[in-house]
Amino acid sequence: MFKKVYILLIISAITSTAAIAQQNLDINFNGLGFLDNREYKAFIPRSRTYSGTRTSIDFGLNLDSLNHFIVGANALHEFGAIPFFGKVDPVAYYKYTGKNWNFYAGEFPREGLLTDYPRALLNDTLLYYRPNVEGLLARYQNENFTETGWIDWVSRQTVTQREQFLFGFSGKYKPNTYGPFYVSHYFLLMHDAGAEVLLPNDHISDNGGGMVKLGLDFSHKTVFDSLSFEAGGLFSLERERGVDGFKTPAGFVFTAYLGYHRFALYEEFYHGQGSHINYGDSYYSKPTYNRIDVIYTPFKFKNIKGQFIASFHFSPGYLNDNQEAFRISYDLGRKVLKRFSAD
Environment class of residue 84 by beta-carbon count within 10 Å: exposed (0-12), middle (13-18) or buried (19+)? Predict the structure, then answer.
């Protein structure tokens, strides 16, 4: 199904003559600085400090208002590391931006596309260490409905490397654009096909999960700038082919967010069967988990945002896990370098 949609979008992008604009070459520079200290007694291997900077620069060739080609790089430096840039991710993709349809193909930033996924499914450390999606993404949206489908290649199969890819879809439906009620859903699955030659005790496996939530958004309708509540269910899928069938633990989730000027509070609660989702937050492997974030944004300008977050994690037997993070993000926007004649 996704394949047919992608082909139709490519054909539409190539043949479309609507909304023709002057061709131009532009540049974008953005980055992220982070200091994220995690004191996790419940998960000792993840009790560490993540610190460093992400710096990205790219150039865009805009054929018209619909078709865009972007090429650049996104480099990571962890404080104190040698060499300076420990990892550089290429940025190279085609983007189609229509009225209702968007399409991406190549190595493109996940920011703004998949960053709304719950931490239970996609851990927030991906922001630091895997900022790009390598694959395809298609999105349809109108004033009431948004749906996104995507595939992200994690590892290419060789004699020693495993074939691994993630695919998923997410969406949101708001029956009344002026009303508070909405329904959202998220799903992903990781397929692990192993290396070219599987070892005797190695098996093809699948791992993933989904979440469905009902929400109420009262932002700008009370004394608070933001006020929202969500409740729903989380489930996970896990199996080793030839060994067992799908295990499907499930549970209840609740979140609340309150924002007033520079301060915000976030509450996240889960109760049910523990889930093991490879790219998800480990705390959801517990039968009960509660997280409280205290957020302060000391400065927020058009292109720059700095934020402190103090997080408190509560799970059975571990009631004093905590996390302190500061992140500064900046995006200078796309600046035109050169305009070309449409002839």
Answer: exposed
